[in-house]
């Protein structure tokens, strides 16, 4: 008995562990439907739980709106949880049914396989504009698209070649998987660029800001909300990176913030998504946190990047 | 009655469920067994998970082992992606070895000072102070590195400040307490007679330390250094903040570079599970895990030598 016991327990635990692994997707899948069933049984009263996972760039907005949403007496029985983890994590989890909402900086088609992306429904809730920033020592206020391409491909290594001071260029880039970088490459540079030897890569906007502000000759890119007096945006082809120019479509370096659901959302999730698009949120929280309101956009853009008025 | 006829052994067996200390014995035994089995199950699950994910890069996605371990071009998002992880592997080893080179002499000297030179002061004040260092979260080290060490290097040494040099400096401070504690414990556990015999032969304190104490505790010192290296090798956050994360083998200590851990933390959240980019990161996690096993193995071997 004493010799068999550990073996017995071991098998038991392994079975438990494996069972937990297997049922993982199943239970969470049913979890997402509780919102609908709960709502159906009580009639008007909305209840359920919503889990939103993904993009850290979108997280502060969703977090703040979720707090207000839950404080609203109409939605008192709905609990919303917001988690970070990155766009890739958000899309994966919503696609596998582990989360109700997948927050993403990029279109699902750019991260997931085509057939997986097809199952997801896109809800665009805000716009983020990205501005080129450079250290003071650079001495430039405007860069053309071609100059930016030359800088990020390493053709130009000194600011004096693009009309600035005699100062070596230090590139502060994002990791190649970053959504911000994908947006910047697509709309500011128009091409993918390789990581150059000696270039710096940081994922967090705070660190990028710190490094560009402090490192002589550094160039990087940040969401508009991160700009202040210590770090000024550089004009792109003579256009200021401003909210008005993004809304009118003059400034091209921007991207939607997406909240993806798998298929049509259940009642509780839909209530949250609708709440995100109310004027109160779009003109309040969205603007307060430095995003651009989706309702103010005069142009639209599709997955391929085609712009329509 | 029947009872009077039973043998003592049978009586004991009948009374078994009643005996309290026996029951306690069994509860304790079952409880600890469950804990051990749970631990083993967790370890096996993690090893299995990381291995299956890490091997998928080669088995499913068809990246060649040669490209992964010897390729220097890391460009997973390109139209023709390449997965050379050599820059990260060399980066990890470089920061780890440099950090150990910086930290070891400092830690061993500190341990000698605490145990041989001023034992009372060292025991009461220095040891707790150094142990306090190990309790500081790594993000704090990273932030100090980014705010103090990087600007200092940039202004006084040159380059971007960021890079292997800054990473090694931050890590060396982080592993200082690990090496110091192990070394101090080993030194303190030496039999008194060893030192007294040396002094009795007319050796000075320096001669005693250099010729008697250090050679005797050498395996333990090495254990401490390897433990420190294991910690440095696996550290992600602090290194990622100061190393620059460029996927290239740097030509100087002051040039942006990457480690296995830094590229994993940068890319894991941004890539979708199951994609080839994500699998490549798991392969690096597998390399990290295997390296940790090697470190543990080395420590085991050193301990065995220590016992002899």
TrEMBL record, chain A:
Q: What is the recorded name of this protein? A: Phosphate-binding protein
Record organism: Paenibacillus nuruki
Q: Which InterPro entries has this protein been placed in?
A: PBP_domain, Phos-bd, Phosphate_ABC_transporter
All copies of the PBP domain together span 41-280
UniProt topology in membrane: Lipid-anchor
Q: Which GO terms describe its molecular function?
A: phosphate ion binding
Q: Which UniProt keywords apply?
A: Cell membrane, Lipoprotein, Membrane, Palmitate, Phosphate transport, Signal, Transport
GO BP terms: namely: phosphate ion transport
Q: Which family is it part of?
A: Belongs to the PstS family.
What this chain does, per the record?
Involved in the system for phosphate transport across the cytoplasmic membrane.
- Is Flavoprotein found in the keyword set? no
Q: Which NCBIfam families match?
A: ptsS_2
Annotated compartments: Cell membrane
Main subcellular localization, coarse class?
A: membrane
UniProtKB/TrEMBL annotation, chain B:
Q: Does the keyword Membrane apply?
A: yes
Q: Where is the ABC transmembrane type-1 domain?
A: 89-303
| Location(s), subcellular | Cell membrane
An example of a GO molecular function for this protein is: phosphate transmembrane transporter activity
Instruction: Report how it sits in the membrane.
Output: Multi-pass membrane protein
UniProt entry keywords in alphabetical sequence = Cell membrane, Membrane, Phosphate transport, Transmembrane, Transmembrane helix, Transport
Looking up SUPFAM superfamilies in the UniProt record yields:
MetI-like
Q: Does the keyword Transit peptide apply?
A: no
Q: What is its main location?
A: membrane
- What are the transmembrane regions? 30-50, 88-113, 125-150, 162-188, 209-230, 280-302
Q: Which Pfam families match?
A: BPD_transp_1 (PF00528)
Kindly give the PANTHER family that the UniProt entry links to this protein: ABC TRANSPORTER PERMEASE PROTEIN YQGH-RELATED, PHOSPHATE TRANSPORT SYSTEM PERMEASE PROTEIN PST
| Family according to the record | Belongs to the binding-protein-dependent transport system permease family. CysTW subfamily.
What function does the entry list? Answer: Part of the binding-protein-dependent transport system for phosphate; probably responsible for the translocation of the substrate across the membrane.
What's this protein's name? Answer: Phosphate transport system permease protein
Organism of derivation: Paenibacillus nuruki
């Amino acid at each position: 008995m004493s010799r068999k016991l550990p073996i017995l327990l071991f098998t038991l635990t392994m079975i438990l562990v494996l069972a937990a692994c297997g049922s993982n997707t199943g239970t969470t899948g049913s979890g997402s439907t509780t919102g609908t069933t709960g709502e159906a049984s009580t009639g008007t009263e909305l209840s359920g739980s919503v889990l939103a996972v993904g993009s850290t760039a979108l997280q502060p907005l969703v977090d703040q709106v979720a707090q207000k949403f839950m404080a609203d007496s109409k939605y008192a029985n709905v609990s919303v949880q917001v988690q970070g983890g990155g766009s890739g994590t958000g899309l994966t989890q919503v696609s596998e049914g582990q989360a109700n909402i997948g927050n993403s900086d990029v279109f699902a088609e750019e991260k997931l396989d085509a057939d997986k992306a097809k199952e997801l429904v896109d809800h665009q809730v805000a716009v983020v504009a990205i501005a080129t920033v450079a250290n003071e020592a650079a001495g430039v206020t405007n860069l053309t698209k071609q100059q930016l391409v030359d800088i990020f491909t390493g053709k130009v290594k000194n600011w004096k070649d693009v009309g600035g001071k005699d100062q070596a260029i230090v590139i502060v880039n994002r990791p190649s998987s970053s959504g911000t970088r994908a947006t910047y490459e697509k709309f500011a540079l128009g091409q993918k660029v390789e990581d150059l030897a000696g270039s710096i890569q940081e994922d967090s906007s705070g660190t990028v800001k710190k490094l560009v502000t402090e490192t002589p000759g550094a160039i990087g890119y940040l969401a508009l909300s991160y700009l202040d007096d210590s770090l000024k945006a550089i004009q792109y082809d003579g256009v200021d990176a401003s909210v008005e120019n993004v809304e009118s479509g003059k400034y091209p370096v921007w991207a939607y913030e997406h909240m993806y659901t798998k298929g049509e959302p259940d009642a509780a999730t839909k209530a949250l998504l609708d709440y995100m698009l109310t004027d109160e949120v779009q003109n309040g929280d969205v603007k307060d946190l430095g995003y651009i309101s989706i309702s103010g956009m005069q142009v639209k853009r599709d997955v391929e990047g085609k712009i329509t008025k | 009655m029947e009872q009077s006829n039973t043998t003592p052994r049978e009586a004991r067996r009948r009374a078994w469920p009643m005996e309290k200390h026996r029951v306690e014995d069994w509860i304790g035994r079952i409880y600890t067994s469950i804990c051990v089995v749970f631990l083993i199950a967790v370890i096996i699950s993690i090893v299995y998970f990381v291995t299956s994910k890490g091997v998928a890069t080669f088995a499913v996605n068809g990246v060649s082992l040669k490209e992964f371990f010897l390729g220097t071009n890391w460009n997973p998002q390109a139209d023709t992606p390449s997965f050379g992880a050599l820059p990260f592997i060399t980066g990890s080893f470089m920061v780890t070895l440099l950090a150990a080179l910086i930290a070891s002499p400092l830690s061993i000297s500190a341990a000698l000072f605490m145990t041989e030179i001023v034992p009372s002061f060292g025991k009461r004040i220095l040891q707790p102070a150094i142990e306090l260092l190990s309790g500081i979260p790594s993000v704090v080290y990273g932030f100090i590195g980014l705010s103090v060490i990087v600007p200092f290097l940039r202004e006084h040494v040159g380059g971007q400040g960021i890079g292997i040099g800054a990473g090694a400096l931050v890590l060396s401070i982080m592993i200082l307490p690990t090496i110091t504690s192990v070394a101090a414990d080993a030194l303190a556990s030496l039999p008194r007679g060893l030192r007294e015999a040396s002094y009795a032969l007319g050796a000075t304190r320096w001669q005693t330390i250099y010729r008697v104490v250090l050679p005797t505790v050498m395996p333990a010192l090495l254990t401490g250094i390897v433990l420190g290296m294991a910690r440095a090798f696996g550290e992600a956050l602090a290194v990622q903040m100061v190393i620059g994360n460029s996927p290239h083998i740097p030509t100087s200590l002051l040039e942006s570079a990457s480690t296995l851990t830094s590229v994993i933390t940068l890319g894991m959240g941004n890539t979708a599970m199951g994609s080839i980019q994500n699998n490549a990161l798991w392969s690096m996690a597998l390399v990290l895990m295997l390296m940790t096993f090697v470190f543990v193995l080395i420590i085991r071997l050193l301990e065995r030598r220590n016992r002899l």
